[in-house]
Design goal:
The complex is a heterodimer.
Chain A lengths: L3 E9 L5 E10 L4 E5 L6 H9 L6 E6 L2 E5 L4 E2 L7 E4 L11 H11 L4 H15 L14 H13 L5 E5 L7 H18 L2 E6 L2 H7 L2 E6 L2 E6 L1 H6 L4 H6 L6 E4 L3 H6 L7 E4 L4 E4 L6 E11 L4 E7 L2 E7 L10 E6 L5 E3 L5 E2 L4 H19 L1
Parallel strand pairs in A: 3-9, 3-10, 7-8, 8-9
Antiparallel strand pairs in A: 1-2, 1-4, 4-5, 5-6, 10-11, 12-13, 13-19, 14-18, 15-16, 15-18, 16-17, 19-20
Chain B lengths: L1 H7 L3 H9 L1 H29 L6 H4 L9 H7 L4 H36 L5 H7 L2 H4 L2 H12 L10 H5 L5 H4 L2 H26 L2 H9 L4 H29 L3 H6 L8 H10 L3 H33 L17 H27 L15 H4 L16 H34 L3 H12 L6 H12 L13 H27 L2 H9 L3 H12 L1 H17 L2 H6 L7 H10 L3 H26 L3 H6 L1
Helix pairs in contact in B: 3-17, 3-20, 3-21, 3-22, 5-6, 5-17, 6-12, 6-14, 6-16, 9-12, 9-18, 9-29, 12-14, 13-14, 14-17, 16-17, 17-22, 18-29, 20-21, 20-23, 20-26, 23-26, 24-25, 26-29, 28-29
The chains are: A alpha+beta, B mainly alpha.
Amino acid sequence: MPTITLDAISKQYSRQATAVQNIDLHIKSGDFMCLLGPSGCGKTTMLRMIAGLEHLSQGRLFIGDQLMDSPADGCFVSPEKRGLGLVFQSYALWPHMTVEQNIEFGLRLRKLPERERRTRTGEVMDKLGIASYAKRYPSQLSGGQQQRVALARMMVLKPKVLLLDEPLSNLDASLRLEMRAELKRLHQAFDTTILFVTHDQWEAMTLATTIAVMSEGQLQQVGSPDDIYARPANRFVAEFIGNPPINQIAADSTLGSRLNSQPDTHMLGIRPEDIHLTQAATPYALPAKVQGIMPTGGSWVLDLETEGQCLQLSTQIRPQVQAGEHTFCQIQPEHLHLFNTDGHRLENTRYGQARIIRNNVSTTTYMHAV
Amino acid sequence: MVGWITTALPNKRGLQLSLKDPATLLGLGLLTTFSYLILAPVISILMDAVNVNFGDSTRIGAEQGSFTLYYLERVFTSPISQRLFWQPLLNTLSVAIGAMCIAMVVGGIMAWLLSRTNLWGRGWFATALIVPFMLPTWTFALAWTTLFKNRSMGGQPGWLESMGYSSPDWLAYGPVPMIFILALHYIPLVILLFGNALRRLDSQLEDSARILGASRSTVAFRIILPLMRPALMSAMVLILADALGEFAVPYILGLPVQYDTLSTSLFRAISSRQTGVASVLAGAIMVLGCITLTIDLYLMREARRFVTLGGKGAMERRRPLGIWRLPATLLAATLFIIGVVLPLLTLFLSTIMRIPGRFHLSNFTLDYWIGTNLNTIALKNGILLTPEFWSATWNSLRIVGTASVCAGLLGLLVGYVVTRTPWRWLASSLRQLTFMPYLVPGIAFAAATLSLFAVQRGPVPALYGTSMILMLALIADQMPFASRAGISAMTQLGKEPEEAAQISGASWLRRMWSIIVPIQKGALVVGIVLPFISGIKGVSLFIILAVPATEVLTTYSLRLVDYNYTQAANAVVLMIAMLAWGGTILTQKLTKTGLAQGLES
């Protein structure tokens, strides 16, 4: 299983339109990596460059030790020779072929004897649970079934690397859950390196072993899902990941200066689940007014106003307050994310100290909430 | 285009990669081909208009090939210009505008009745009223002469004449019948274009206006009409453009009373070997065509602004006609009788009657179809036993068929290149180049082709008189439709199915053969059959380019008209109508698409 190495790659469509800018990325073999970013951030372009459907403008691309694309060296290996699998967002099944013929097509190109073709096609169809549709045409299948055929079509070739473009975005909610589990299982079963692209943070969080967050053609942060959520490298990542989104407080506002005294800080971030309601004036408690309460099923999102600032709080515990009531909210300094004027993360120096307080706080919060 | 230059030119790699790209290579090939087939003839004829032509050097007093304004002066300002250009222009415009007005009013009413009301037999009329569009225009012209021809022409008299009523000249020939016949021909076009737009109109738009308190008439004038304006204007312009190049109807109904239109004037100039004058006239027709179609393109761009409106609420809703239901249905039926039954029946009856207009059993005969040793100077056998008829049929099928297959395939390839090449200038120039013949009425394009291929140029021998020249001209003439069909099919397909095959390891040829062509089978059939039908019934290209050896059905029937073998000519026209109609029905069956969709794409 090869690694994929992107060495300072860029893609320009015209002088004005730069899709991908100077990206270094190393995808380890066996990794399940996700490229995450809002639409138009260049993540699909990256995927297509790795597949060879787009040419690099600058930089070098390796799969394993082999140089695949490098404008400087005049090297370009065409997609059909890269031995990759790519599942398109639209699935791109060939409408004039049956499920079986779709899956078999690649094997035919490789001139495999019919016997082997049949066994391999049968195997992969069994594994993905589509054997009973073998004779149907793509138009007679549901979205989820089509998606599995698209996967099977690539899996049957046993590619070293499998690329998935927004694999779940065309499915309805329940199917999406099902396929998410399936993909995770397949990653283990087929033992391939998988790189997938999505704009859905939940998909990324639940599936990937490593997430690369992209914005405007640039790589923002690469790390494990936990890392990216807990220690966002900059304001973009902090804002993009998390639902409801992180609360942002200007460091020079009344609330901001009360919460933080660390120099160079421009903006403070606090995750909605890190704000807690209390009814007494504990050390870190601030007076707040509840503006509204939105139940979201298992949890609740509260709109608070404190020190002239609107904050969102989310909790798994049923809030004991009503809209319009005055109460206290508690923000622990060690939970604050600090960013400088460039939007980069600053280390929170209260981090260590706050650890200790944390235990007390959680118990008090619990008490008050109950 | 700017984008391409800035990125691809500075680094050589862009160029290298693009040159390895099959789509770009193919595109360059196609660009060369079409430059030769389409652009070169047009340039050649424009050159002929300002250069001294063969045989004119003594009259003009300049050497052959040198620059001259003689032809322009002759056509536009000389004393003869009135007969050569200005009168025909006036005639053309009055016929075109007259036909357009009638077609718009009648067609508009019919479209509304068919798509928005509970007319009896709506489904049936929706197909039946389109039939005149599938018939060649001069079917009607011949039917008209069969009925109304008077003594000012030789040959067999019309039915009215032989029944004792002499029809006046204004009824038998000239603008009145021409306008009437062309209007009949274009009504279906209005029904199609306007009806489609009406059907697509979201009925929620009407509903919301009604809820806001608008009366029926306010809704009609303030909501529906403004929304329909682009479709209406577009239909008007298309009719004008098409009528400008119409040849067969003025040839049959105008010439006997010296009522020339631009196309017949051009035809006269060509047949009297006045190449320079013909070139100027062809240029003038092209300019007129360009003007009208530029207006159309502008209107279509306007229309696109409205496209987003088509919501889910576009459900079919019909308005009950109440006591008007019967009269409205009768109106539709009358239109069908006048537009389809009457002309076809007249033509058919005329082919089985010895003396026109005498409905007596002894007067009926099948001799003109299958008789032998008839008492005529030439054409001693019935039409079905005449070898020339069969050779003309074979020529029609062979020439038009080959050209249509080529055009269909080329159209798909153009679509492929336009959607795939990274060179945007290549895509847009191919698109525009293949669209160009649309701006040039057939008769002018035929003249242009003739001007390029009549003599040997470089390695290309003189092609005049061969079926090759007809095929080339037909291919070029059919490219606008074929390439539009190809482009829209390829745009709908998207890149991904092909890319998926590429990822699976398929080479370019393999992808074309196993993925693109099979998926586009339906589009390809439409792209071949529809040009085939229009080619089979087309006149203007053949009348200029065909010679007796390459005679096709259309020119054969016109020649029979010239020789006054009325029955035979009508029989041939009926055969053409059958071919065209049958072909259309077959396409609809094969592709399961209505004709409406086919015309629109």
